[in-house]
Amino acid sequence: MAVITKADFIDSVESALQFISYYHPKDFVDAMHEAYQKEQNSGAKDAIAQILINSRMSAEGRRPVCQDTGIVTAFVKIGMNVQWDTDQTVQEMVDEGVRRAYQNADNPLRASVVANPMGPRKNTRDNTPAVVHISMEPGDTVTVDVAAKGGGSENKSKFVMLNPNDSIVDWVLETVPKMGAGWCPPGMLGIGIGGTAEKAMVMAKESLMEPVDIHELLEKGAETPAEKLRLEIFEKVNKLGIGAQGLGGLTTVLDIKINHCPTHAASLPVAMIPNCAATRHVHFTLDGSGPAELEQPSLDDWPEVTWEVGDNVRRVNLDEITATDVQEWKPGETLLLSGKILTGRDAAHKRIQELLDKGEPLPDGVDFNGKFIYYVGPVDAVGDEVVGPAGPTTSTRMDKFTRMMLEKTGLLGMIGKAERGDVAIEAIKDNKAVYLMAVGGAAYLVSKAIKQSRVVAFEDLGMEAIYEFEVKDMPVTVAVDVAGESVHKTGPAIWKVKIEEMA
What is the C-alpha separation between 393 and 257, in angstroms, rounded? Predict the structure, then answer.
């Protein structure tokens, strides 16, 4: 009978979360590299290149691949013959491992969990509690699948209760385009089919713990209904032309995962959860002999990919930019930004709105007139870093604030990830502003362009405070121009037609 100690369990959770913060699974790296090699859309290819370069940099520097270091989910399977040596519950031990991992002095991870979701949404400061699923099974070991899921991809989770004879494929093909690019494709789609509503969601989430192996399935051929469904969805979703970061291209999904179980005769529950370009999960087993030992990957596992600045790149001095200048920028154009920008996310925008509604001035140091705002919540810096990983957050969450910011603060433009909704695009067009897209999933790479950083307002909000960054050659793409043309609408439409023509 194995005896699992509290110390071994907590240490294993802590080390696993540190491990996945900077090491992508090799299967994911290989699949992303294959997508890079075959991609024909230059914008999507550049985005994948940045993701791969960022992945290698994170592995080398042991710093997070993404600034959103996720909410922790743990699937804990306990053997029936296991004996515990602990005075804590499994939930309490997982939470202690999370707390230690996220407050690690050498590699602090961003605390993103807030208590009281109905409000006030107060950050717990240590990323606890985790979401823990516990099950019992035969044996005398404890196996754990631990993942850190970013909000951008988690927010795109979908569920439907279909009729028994409805098409799952049709629902997926209808739903994926509506998810936008906030989940940072290319990634995986986890699908849970059957059971009840909550069971389908849990199965979808757990399927994302599996390795990328769709190409092995393609080679051997489908033998079961689930395998046939995986291949059909894989082929048809990629034919949608959504592409990397939603810019249009050949690869939207790297794999399709399906878990299923029996369900009621009147029901067909279907859940779909995407995994983003910051895929983070690892599996370990405890047998009573000590904490888990995770094998450190070789840097040779990462491909040698470079990202070159093309001849058509426009260098922009943000400290001298004018409203006339931005009217020259074209959709899809690459810019290298230098100068000062302010940051702000959901909580900061809400406070700004409250101040403006009361007729009160913005805090000292917060002047958006003629400036750009970067939607980001960075990781704390360590050592000689100016700032920790600082990639963009999903911009659509700020859509409802866009007209206010443009018309009441004098803001000239915004930087974030993924598409903007129609409300934001109309506001951008009406105010002759612009929206620029940075690559989601390249947070450590982006942080190297930030040369100075300081908090200027709302320090109590932690990672959601307003910072002032000084950047040098920060790469972005013009995603919405002053006329309201969005590359996230034109790109996928063009590439869907191109893929049909290729077929």
Answer: 26
151-285 CATH fold: 60s Ribosomal Protein L30; Chain: A; (3.30.1330)
Alpha helices in 78-167 (DSSP H): 90-102, 151-154
| Cβ atoms within 10 Å, residue 454 | 11
d(CA 368, CA 481): 19
Q: State phi, psi for 273 to the nearest 5 degrees.
A: -130, 125
CA distance 416 to 373: 9
Tell me the helix, strand and coil percentages in the chain, rounded to 5.
35, 25, 40
For residue 183, the Cα-to-chain-centroid distance in whole angstroms is: 6
Cβ(246)–Cβ(171) under 8 Å? no
**Whole-angstrom distance, CA of residue 247 vs CA of residue 41:** 8
Reported as half-sphere exposure (CB side, CA atoms, 13 A), residue 31 has a value of: 24
The CATH classification of domain 314-490, taken from the options 3.20.130.10, 3.40.630.30, 3.40.50.1820, 1.20.272.10: 3.20.130.10
The answer to whether the CB of 282 falls within 8 A of the CB of 217 is: no
Contact criterion met (CB below 8 Å) for 372 and 325: no
- Is the bond into 129 cis (omega within 30 degrees of 0)? yes
- Cα gap 278→28, rounded to integer Å: 10
Query: Using one digit for the tens of pLDDT, what is the confidence trace for 472-489?
Result: 999 999 999 999 999 999
Domain boundaries, the chain: 1-24+65-149, 151-285, 314-490
Distance in angstroms (rounded) separating the CA atoms of residues 84 and 448: 45
Tokens 């279907």 -> residue: 270
**Residue 496's CB: how many other CB atoms inside 10 A?**
17
Among candidates 5, 15, 1, which has minimal Cα distance to 292?
15
* pLDDT for position 278: 83
In DSSP terms, 265 is beta-bridged to none
- Distance separating alpha carbons of residues 27 and 426, to the nearest angstrom: 41
Look up residue 312 and give its two tokens. 């058509």
CA–CA dist 276, 440 (Å, integer): 9
**pLDDT single digits (tens) 125-167:** 999 999 999 999 999 999 999 999 999 999 999 999 999 999 9
